[in-house]
Amino acid sequence: MSSPHAHSAKTRSSRQALKLDDITIVDRAILKRAVGAMAFGNAMEWFDFGVYSYIAVTLGKVFFP
């Protein structure tokens, strides 16, 4: 029977060295904008979740006493 992790048993010496095409360089301004957009989106998701939770409980108490 073969091991399910047989393909991941490579050692450091058997790995190939990084090439120039393997490296991605990102402009700092673009990176900051992307991180800011991600943080804003995450905050909006939590706000939406909180508002929905509050409204769901409130409507439940009002219409189903």
TrEMBL record:
It comes from the Bacteria. This is MFS transporter.
